Amino acid sequence: MRPTRRHLLAAPLLLAAPALRAQEAFPSRPITLIAAGAAGGPTDTITRIVAESMGRQLDQPVVVESIGGSVVGPQRMVQAKPDGYTLLINNIGMAASATLFRKLPYDVPGSFAPLGLVSDAAMTIVTRPGFPAENLAGVMADLKTRGDALNMATAGLGSAANLCALLVQQAAGNRATIVVFRGTAPAIAELMAGRIDLLCDQATNTIPYIRDNRVQAWGVSSPQRLAGLPKVPTTAEAGFGGVAMSTWHGLYAPAGTPEPIQEKLSAALQAALRDEKLRQRYAELLTDVPSPERQTIAFHRRFLAEEVARWRPIIQAAGAYAD
Fold first, then answer.
1. DSSP state of 2
2. What is the residue range of the signal peptide feature (predicted)?
3. What is the distance, to the nearest Å, from the Cα of residue 78 to the centroid of all Cα atoms in its chain?
4. For the whole model, what pTM was predicted?
5. Closest to 265 (Cα-Cα) out of 69, 111, 48, 84
6. How far apart are CA 35 and CA 106, in angstroms?
7. Three-state DSSP string of 130-144
8. What is the per-residue pLDDT for 158?
9. Which residues of the chain are under the pLDDT cut of 70?
10. CATH of 123-220, one of 3.40.190.10, 3.30.450.20, 3.40.50.800, 1.25.40.10
């Protein structure tokens, strides 16, 4: 029998039906969520909190896989099938990596489908006990005068601590001697011992030591003072508005993931971020839930491109690359 016009018109719909049904049923099995950071670190902690809540929203387990390194985790994710079953949470280093690495096995932002921001955390500018300053202006003046006679800790190129260090040095108009640690925990230990002068790290990591007066805090990089550190001024209040940044985290799927699946995952993220249990855990970590607008796909797409553009000239001026 020769195919009729009706048969010909119906054929594309029949071919598309399995894919449509798969999207409607999504997710029908566990989802892997890659944390682009070391086990036990801030990115890993945030990822596990979000995974637990998103799993409840999606009615499927969300299994966290911690893959350290600013390239390895994203590379693993972009190599996955773009079906929504392999996702990634990465921090501000995602934007910085576009310039820090001159040869990447993927494109930022082109290889990724941003699904929404997950968290915002302020940075704190801290010094060793007894550092000879009265305020942040004094710290900056000392750095400007003494330069590489002062040492400043980071957790390596692309880390939030290193990006903040670039802003601090730019604002001071001079460069310290950079000492790289494998994570900021050993850097804080050396700071408390007086062998490191300066560090800019997440409040999540530094607040116990600030509260116990084991390190001195001079400024926070957020627009407002932190509820957990009400006596520490913002960098803008202290006269250094250029030292403003958030250690944000974002959720990603591989580029090419069907839009309906992206939208379902983003909706699950937004519902997870309204969960009271998650908000309580964030508060304990001095981490903010992003505003509703920042949780959206549209904002995250635009913001990632803006952050890549923001950090490019800062990193290029420093002249330090990871490859």
1. P
2. 1-22
3. 17
4. 0.84
5. 84
6. 17
7. CCCCCCHHHHHHHHH
8. 79
9. 1-24, 69
10. 3.40.190.10
* pLDDT tens, residue by residue, 46-67: 999 999 999 999 999 999 999 8
CATH number of 30-120+247-318, picked from 3.40.190.150, 1.20.1050.10, 3.40.50.2000, 3.10.560.10:
3.40.190.150
- The order of strands in the sheet holding 86-91 is 62-66, 31-35, 86-91, 249-254, 112-121, 287-288
Q: What is the pLDDT of residue 7?
A: 55
> Can you tell me whether residue 296 is helix, strand or coil?
coil
CA 192-179-103 angle, to 5 degrees, is 140
> For all residues of the chain together, what is the average pLDDT?
91
User: In one letter, which amino acid is 13?
Assistant: L
Instruction: Tell me which residue has tokens 């911690």.
Output: 66
Structure tokens at 291: 């505003």
Q: Which two tokens stand for residue 271?
A: 């519902």
Q: What SS3 class is residue 307? A: helix
DSSP strands (E only) in the chain = 31-35, 62-66, 86-91, 112-121, 123-127, 151-154, 177-180, 198-202, 216-220, 249-254, 287-288
Tokens 């801290």 belong to which residue? 126
